[in-house]
Amino acid sequence: MKKLLICLAATAAVCSAQAQSGNFTGFSAGGNMAMNAATASETVGTTTLDGIGQHSIGVGGFAAYGLSIGSASILTLGFDYSFSDIKAGELKSATTSDSYKLQNLSSLSIAPGTLLTDKTLAYFKLGFENGKLAFTTSSTTNTTNIAGTSWGLGTKTMFSKNTFLQIEVKQTNFRATRYENSSVDISARSTTGSVGVGFMF
Fold first, then answer.
1. How does strand 54-70 pair with strand 26-44?
2. Secondary structure of the chain as H, E, C letters
3. What percentage of the chain exceeds 90 in pLDDT?
4. Cα dist. 153→158, 169, 192 in Å?
5. From the CB of residue 130, how many other CB atoms can be counted at a distance below 10 Å?
């Protein structure tokens, strides 16, 4: 009898944990609003141009699939996309105004997380970033593909049966690249804070 009670208690505990982690397993999708601080930098000869970042606000979307990997652990595979251009610097003179922008940014990520409560998940995120870096002068716009890696921290909190609030901070570093017919390396980095609402399917 004692063994039976222990077995029933253990089964109940496992089922309860699975029910809790089940809040964040399966497919989800949503949208967010993000505050971005981005900087483009380049070196011409012995002169380095850096620290010309600007702040911008944009909107994006995300989709993810969560897998239960333990009684209170979730592994999430995700995709993010930014619908907005992100300012990455501006150069002005009396006669010209040149600007850098990050465009069409997308991200594939993996995010292990742990349940803080049955309705709140905290996670650490690693991602591969892809997009374009545009340099616009008064007469032309040049673009080049840009890629890099990111890491971030975030939380998801359920506020209804299928709907959650997502808050995240992410740091991205892009590898150096060059515009066509250019001999100058240019790189970029960004810090993004976002707040979004998602839906579990």
1. antiparallel
2. CHHHHHHHHHHHHHHHHHHHHHHHCEEEEEEEEEEEEEEEEEEECCEEECCCCEEEEEEEEEEEEEEEEECCEEEEEEEEEECCCEEEEEEECCCCEEEEEEEEEEEEEEEEEEEEECCEEEEEEEEEEEEEEEEECCCCEEEEEEEEEEEEEEEEEECCCCEEEEEEEEEEEECCECCCCCCCCEEEEEEEEEEEEEEEC
3. 57
4. 17, 6, 11
5. 15
| Global confidence as pTM | 0.80
Q: Which amino acid is at 34?
A: A
Handedness of CA 100, 189, 156, 66 (dihedral sign): positive
128-171 tens-digit pLDDT: 999 999 988 877 888 899 999 999 999 999 999 899 999 999 99
Whether 167 contacts 153, CB under 8 Å: no
Quick one: fold of 2-200? Porin (2.40.160)
**Annotated domain spans of the chain:** 2-200
